[in-house]
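All the exercises in this workshop are built on plain-text protein records. Sequence and backbone structure share a record, each on its own labelled line. The structure tokens are whole numbers drawn from a learned vocabulary of backbone shapes. The record below serves as our worked example for the rest of this section.
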Amino acid sequence: MLQITIPEREYYDEIKQMFVYTKKQTLNLEHSLLSIKKWESKWKKPFLGKEQKTYEESIDYVRCMTLNQNVDPIVYYGITRQIFDRINEYIDDPMTATWFNDQSKKKTSGPVITAELIYYWMVSFQIPFECQKWHLNSLLTLIHICEIKNAPAKKMKKKDIYTRNAALNNARKKKFGTKG
């Protein structure tokens, strides 16, 4: 969970033609599958897509991440560039000690990932639904581990088998002092 404090501010409401004042507010945020589901339900496009988000979409995602109740919507417009930077660092944080040797996690092509696809993966791998509240990167890491552990063992090529067997035979010949 990320905790941010939005400072008090003064805004001019062009519609009402008056100044609006907001109080300093501390928000608790969680970048989770639930947050993405709320955001995608409103904007009707994938959150994890390559398309750049507008300012309004970004502000709305912070609303979707907010765990606090009854937050005045005008408060979100007090988010500064520095606060957005902290939020983006939090979103990008892997939140795990797990790392992968392969490059399979960094696929550049494949299906567009939406909340429903992630829920499908959770069902497929029997991941409990309470994990939808985890930081999204932790959940995606768990899903990737499930993919790896459930993948069928790769068969060795005949050439590799012959090379391995030859090395084993040579090691045995040397160990036992024989010629084969």
User: Anything to note?
Assistant: The longest strand covers residues 2-6.
